[in-house]
Amino acid sequence: MRIPLAFLLCSALPVLADTAIIGHPGLPPLDSTTLQRIYTGKVVEVDGVRVTPVNLSPGSELRARFLRDYLGQDEDKYTGYWTVRRYVGKGTPPRELSSSEEVSRFIAKTAGAIGYVDETELTPDVRILLRKAP
Predict the structure, then answer these.
(1) Do 61 and 37 form a contact (C-beta atoms < 8 A)?
(2) How many distinct helices (H) and strands (E) make up the chain?
(3) What is d(CA 95, CA 114) in angstroms, rounded to the nearest whole number?
(4) Predicted structure pTM score
(5) Coil, strand, or helix at residue 39?
(6) Residue 76 has pLDDT above 50, yes or no
């Protein structure tokens, strides 16, 4: 009786899928360095296409995972970076959207748009540009 109960308890734990970097279908695949440079405002074009990065709202678990896994930053460091960058006139942070569904819709209809969603929320009208290596 203990084994089935233990299995049942373990299977009820939430499973986090990986974060997938997605983009408008016209964009090429990205490497991690280019992605970091896009989300820090240092790259604005990829293969001649102007990119429009989008973020989820602060406080989102997926945003925290993206910042940690792809940019190597936490929310405070990322927000501080953009506060300084905006102050010195070096750009504005990526637009913030409230949900993965909103991110996918925006990316599907906006040429050059990139963002991130949980792998379980991928839609066929966007392209996967980068996945974290296992």
Answers:
(1) no
(2) 5, 7
(3) 11
(4) 0.85
(5) helix
(6) yes
